[in-house]
């Protein structure tokens, strides 16, 4: 079999690898069965389905009608680094980092930081649009997680709430 679409083939590998990792990780929990599901049941099923989708995508990459082989282009390092950095900053700001004595800054500040850092991945940064998006995400997250689901985590920094 000849790979006719490199993009599809490597996307299929990524899906299969991530799905397999989730399925294997889910076995560390009690899986149970369909009638009595344990905490590992849903991640296991989701991981298996994701891995199967990856295998199907890899197979269909051999059937593609792409004339140039649908080659993979260069890696876009700027967006990749800003998106990963935004997620790391979100985690650090939400929970704090005791090794550098950074206290938990709370969900609201973490969401604003996440949104602004991730927006630098694009070449078209507009402060007003990003600010509106961050505000909508922060308010929506507050109502979804704190009000509706009643999750207990810091919303504001400790120096504000006391």
UniProtKB/TrEMBL annotation:
The chain crosses the membrane at residues 9-29, 41-63, 75-96, 102-121, 130-149. Keywords: Membrane, Transmembrane, Transmembrane helix. InterPro entries: DUF1468. It comes from the Bacteria. Residues 10-154 form the DUF1468 domain. It holds the Pfam family TctB. The keyword Transmembrane applies. This is Tripartite tricarboxylate transporter TctB family protein.
């Amino acid at each position: 079999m000849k790979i006719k679409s490199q993009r599809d083939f490597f996307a299929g590998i990524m899906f299969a690898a991530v799905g397999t990792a989730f399925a294997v990780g889910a076995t560390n929990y009690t899986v149970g069965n369909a009638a009595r599901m344990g905490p590992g049941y849903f991640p296991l099923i989701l991981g298996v389905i994701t891995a199967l989708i990856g295998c199907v995508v890899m197979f269909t990459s051999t059937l593609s009608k792409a004339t140039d082989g649908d080659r993979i282009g260069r890696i876009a390092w700027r967006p990749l680094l800003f998106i990963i950095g935004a997620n790391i900053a979100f985690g650090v700001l939400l929970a704090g980092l005791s090794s550098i004595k950074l206290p938990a800054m709370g969900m609201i500040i973490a969401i604003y930081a996440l949104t602004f850092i991730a927006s630098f991945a694009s070449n078209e940064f507009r402060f007003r649009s990003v600010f509106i998006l961050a505000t909508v995400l922060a308010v929506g997250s507050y109502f979804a997680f704190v009000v509706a689901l009643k999750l207990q985590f810091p919303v504001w920094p400790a120096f504000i709430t006391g």
